[in-house]
């Protein structure tokens, strides 16, 4: 056997042993709350989850014994997954022009337990949307975000919410293609209104999105029940034919939609029926501002946790104090934590302009509304990961990335791990 004289003198033997440690408390798995349990992490992976007494039999007695006893009531949650988030910490994704500014918003949410997120844009002129998408795609390349959510610009002027009416437009497949290209595979979802010309039907925006494996999310719409029903059917069929593994969503059900009335059901009736059939997953901004907590409880009770995404719809003011902020081209005033379009014409301000909560706050509010903890957490982790087909995150399950959130009994965050590393 010859020896290559150029070979470097690498130390022989096995690579460095993985760093193995446990996190203890009442562990929230996708299906259960396991009291007095442990999550064992090796490097960036979860390697074991179970009740303490089983750890010894699993050969992990030493690892668990080396972990301090948790305070009673300590909860161990999966890292949360937010599919609708415009920013926080003073910066919003629709307005960022540097990677650093975008990371400020990402880290604001990560420190509070959101370890996977889409960065959401708002309606803007086409060139701005392309630029922002390209910038955020760089963060997705580096694994800092899971991708991009484009909210607009193909939205109903009648249900525009905080979107700039001058920049809304009818469906334009050319713009979709530009965004897909700028996103380099990271444009994951787009909110579209089926009542806007050019969105549905052959050759429409929704078809182009599905072709590019981007989830069309029904929202900001004035559609009738029938139009919404037809659109859901069209998108669900297209996804199952050419983008298996993705699930259709509705953007913040109830908000920025024609409301449900018993003589005019609007899109909400169609969405609830589709969710009950398992065809659609509906977002709820369960922050106690966008929706009555009783509505959150009722919807989860009606369609089941597997059809509900809890989201923040957060904007730059998340984690910040009241004051003036930007949301794309719109000026927003935050008062008592409620963001509204700055509108001197309205005594109580304009329409709600995004949220100021972190996703764990939404989980806490949902539990306070009477939803079981395991369901509230599932709607903020396992279900959103599933919508995007992300099999590596979203649950405390052996083999997945070690994204772990430790909270006290009141769901206040005490510690966050992402890929096994402490988030500080
Ligand atoms: Zn939004």
Automatic annotation (TrEMBL):
Stretch forming the signal peptide: none
Keywords carried by this UniProt record: Carbohydrate metabolism, Hydrolase, Metal-binding
Pfam family membership, one: Amidohydro_1
Binding site for substrate: 162, 255-256, 263, 290, 352-354
Uppermost EC category: hydrolase
Domain of life: Bacteria
EC number of this enzyme: 3.5.1.25
Gene Ontology MF terms: metal ion binding; N-acetylglucosamine-6-phosphate deacetylase activity
The keyword Oxidoreductase appears for this protein: no
Family: Belongs to the metallo-dependent hydrolases superfamily. NagA family.
The protein's name in its UniProt record: N-acetylglucosamine-6-phosphate deacetylase
Source organism: Isoptericola dokdonensis DS-3
Lineage, broadest ranks: Bacteria, Bacillati, Actinomycetota, Actinomycetes, Micrococcales
